[in-house]
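Figure 2 data, in text form.
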Amino acid sequence: MIAVKNKARVWVFAGIKRIERRLPFPILGLNSDNGSEFINAHLLRYCEEEHITFTRSRPYRKNDSCFVEQKNWSVIRRAVGYSRYDTVEELTLLNELYGYLRLYVNFFQPVRKLIKKERIGSKVTKRYDEAKTPYKGVLSSPDIEYKVKVKLRKEYDMLNPAELKRKITKLQNKLIKLNTLKQGVRENLDKSTKPLSSFGYIST
């Protein structure tokens, strides 16, 4: 999770590089929407040089990126809401919050993946795999190097989910306060900002 200054390709590319450095495995492929912040010669050249498969979704077909869109709600919107964050101070707070949020989600929030969907008449039956955190999923993968797993285990042992939750909540409150003050200044200029009631705290 990375917040960038705007959709200019220089910031988006810098964000991708930061995410790449955090991943416990190499990037094999990138799939983007059709925005010019992704569809440009700069990113294409980088993918070709790094032997990364670069694909894009079909126009106006959000389901082509359904898993990303799902996480956009279940992780990002639930954590920071729908308000507009467009100042340097808000950007700094967002990235600090995301730093703790990614640890909380990846190490301590189990998820289930759909493995089978069967329709019998009008009834649809869905089967899911065993719930596990992304961290446990990486540890159980035979494709991840042993030294990477050792590094992740050490990182996991140093984390406290309750402390992460407290830090996230503290930053959420700071973000609300900063955004509310900004809206007060801009109330006669921008009437499109959604109310803060759309903001939600992460459930324990």
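Caption note: The first strand starts at residue 29 and ends at 32.
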